[in-house]
């Protein structure tokens, strides 16, 4: 076509892959541990197992929608054009994962911590070749590297199963993929216009777009600035962020809110003072706790599924909460009827507590 003076654009896309048809995973994993990112996975897994049961498995139809919640949380502060969890595209990938009559298999694997999904990987399996399409993790657990763990588990699954190639898919940023493999293959995309004006204008748009992408590939810092810095600024100036900020300001100057908060604090101080010797905690969780022979209380352990509630009520960062769970501390709830009247951190060794300043009603 170039010889006949036709316009022609050839885009070369890079895709990394692992040959899983030979060798074994343990040998492969030892070789890749020269990279710190891979080497630290064992530490991350150990820490997460101190918090709860860590399980890797394929998602079923009952919890397939939970991957979109994680994807939205991961992408809402990024200036990126991902439409994986939006509109018709979302429904398409959902149906592909649920439909078993296709010539290929759409597979969604998840990493669970005490039945809470903290990372997922969406990919396709066809003719003994697995292709990763999307991977994301819950940002609240980012410090524990769930994304890296699910990478490792999926690669191990490919080695142990009847799969010859594990492909990571195309993408602009593949530094994390390079930690896992040095094998690269290229996919050529050919674009050319017809003779009409509209087609040529669209073609020029593609040429300019590919030029910008090539610049971004060569200057990773510019790419990260565009996606993360500009994405954060865009989120900060969004309507939802503004409404949340406005609500917080109004509540700060609301005297009735301050009054209610003061009453709650005094009430919780009473409970903390009363239970400082941990007579509650030393009893079995099934025991009822009488108060003046009239009111009955019970206590329950808060789980990792209540992480957002603990963050909101106790005003703690997720990293601080997870670190407490990791060290063996227990978060307990004092419940009267259907109302949680107090939240406390309990450390059996140090016998210390922290009581929240808020009330939440059980659903």
Task: Describe the overall structure.
The chain is globular, with a radius of gyration of 26 Å. It has helices spanning 25-32, 36-39, 41-51, 66-75, 87-98, 146-160, 175-178, 197-218, 220-236, 239-252, 255-274, 279-282, 307-314, 318-326, and strands at residues 9-19, 54-58, 105-113, 116-126, 129-137, 165-170, 184-191, 289-291, 295-301, 330-336, 339-346, 360-361. It is 44% helix and 24% strand. Helix 3 packs across helix 14 (318-326). Residues 266-289 and 351-363 have low confidence and may be disordered. The strands form two sheets. Strands 2-3-4-5-6-1-7 form a seven-stranded mixed β-sheet, sandwiched between helices. It has a five-stranded antiparallel β-sheet with strand order 8-9-10-11-12. Helix 6 links the parallel strand 5 and strand 6.
| Biggest sheet strand line-up | 2-3-4-5-6-1-7
Shape: globular
Low-confidence stretches: 266-289, 351-363
Mean pLDDT: 77
Number of DSSP-assigned strands: 12
**SSE class:** alpha+beta
Question: N-to-C terminal Cα separation, in Å?
Answer: 67 Å
Q: What would you report as the Rg, rounded to the nearest angstrom?
A: 26 Å
Proportion of residues in helical segments: 40-55%
> In sequence order, what are the helices and strands, one letter per element?
EHHHEHHEEEHEHEHHHHHEEHHEEE
Task: Please give the count of helices.
Answer: 14
């Amino acid at each position: 076509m170039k010889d006949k003076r036709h316009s022609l654009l050839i885009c070369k896309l890079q895709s990394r892959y692992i040959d899983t048809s030979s060798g074994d995973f343990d040998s492969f994993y030892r070789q890749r541990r020269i990279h710190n990112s891979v080497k630290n996975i064992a530490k991350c897994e150990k820490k997460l197992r101190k918090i709860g049961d860590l399980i890797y498995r394929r998602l079923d139809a009952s919890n397939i929608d939970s991957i979109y919640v994680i994807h939205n949380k991961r992408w809402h502060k990024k200036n990126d054009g991902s439409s994986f969890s939006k509109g018709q595209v979302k429904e398409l990938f959902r149906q592909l994962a649920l439909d078993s009559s296709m010539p290929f298999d759409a597979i969604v694997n998840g990493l669970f911590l005490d039945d809470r999904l903290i990372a997922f990987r969406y990919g396709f399996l066809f003719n003994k070749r697995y292709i990763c399409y999307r991977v994301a993790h819950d940002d609240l657990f980012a410090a524990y590297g769930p994304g890296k763990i699910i990478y490792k588990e999926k690669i191990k699954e490919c080695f142990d199963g009847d799969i010859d190639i594990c492909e990571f898919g195309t993408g602009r940023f593949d530094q994390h993929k390079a930690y896992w493999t040095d094998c690269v293959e290229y996919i050529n995309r050919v674009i050319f216009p017809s003779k009409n004006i509209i087609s040529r204008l669209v073609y020029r748009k593609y040429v300019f777009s590919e030029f910008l992408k090539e610049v971004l590939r060569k200057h990773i810092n510019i790419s990260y600035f565009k996606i993360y810095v500009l994405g954060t600024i865009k989120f900060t100036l969004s309507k939802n962020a503004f409404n949340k900020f406005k609500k917080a300001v109004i509540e700060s100057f609301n005297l009735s809110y301050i009054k209610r908060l003061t009453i709650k604090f005094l009430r919780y101080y009473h409970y903390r003072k009363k239970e400082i010797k941990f007579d509650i905690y030393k009893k079995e969780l099934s025991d009822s706790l009488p108060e003046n022979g009239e009111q009955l209380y019970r206590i329950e352990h808060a789980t990792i599924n209540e992480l957002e509630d603990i963050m909101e009520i106790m005003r703690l960062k997720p990293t601080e909460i997870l670190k407490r769970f990791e060290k063996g501390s227990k978060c307990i709830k004092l419940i009267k009827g259907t109302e949680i009247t107090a939240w406390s951190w309990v450390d059996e060794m140090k016998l210390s507590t922290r009581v929240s300043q808020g009330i939440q009603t059980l659903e």
